[in-house]
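User: I'm curious whether this sequence folds into something compact or stays loose and floppy. Could you predict its structure so I can see for myself?
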Amino acid sequence: FGDKGKGGKGSSDAPTRTGRGRGDTSVPVIEDGPPMNERITCKEMRVLRAVPGGKDEMLGVISLEEGLQLAEEEGVDLVLVNEETDPPIAKLVNYGKLKYQAEKAKKEKKKAGKTKDVKEVKMTHRIGPHDYGVRAKNARKFLMAGHRVKVTMQFKGRENQFVDLGREVMDKFAGDLVDVGKPDAPSRKMGSRLNMILAPAGDALKAIEDRKVEQKEKRKKKRGYVDVDEDDESDVMSDVMSDVSGLDTDSAVDSEEE
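Assistant: Here's the prediction. I'll summarize afterward.
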């Protein structure tokens, strides 16, 4: 049948472990991140159990063998969250799910943080009331959506003598939108064009923040009990460790003593 112990088809040098909560499925050992499961070397530790939607449960100081047994029985991971204390602190938590959700939240944050498109609104210095109203309505919609708006006015030939009139129209345009936007700088002539950039402000910024809060709440409900801090500027692993630890070391010790 062939020797599978030395380079045969059945051999593999990659370390494997039994997947938590997935029967006997074997997966590669996670080499990055905090020590967990069989990678923990301390003989005993203070163990917490993650409680969905509530405060972590203190299980007390137990041996590594007992901690691994509990993790196996509950289908979760035993993750070492603080090695500096005596004894170290570990937590029973679904690390794979937590890491996945932290990475997903990081990607969503990065996507949400991308610069919005710059929308352009064109007009002339002799624009009529109806067209002016349409341009103002569109600009207001763009600003409320979080976009910057570039207001452009073209001057050809003898029309260049009316640049000052064009500035007055632009100033009025900015004034009519003052509740949702403000100019980055005064209108400026560049070649044959007079340009002004409006950035979201006032009610537009409030609407943007309200949408962010609403989206964050939706993501929380979709994720379940895991709450990843999306305002954290650190890397994904920092986000994960922040959620894995979930409590102050001193408070964990005090809770057990009480």
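Summary: Residues 101 and 223 are 7 Å apart (CA to CA). The radius of gyration is 30 Å.
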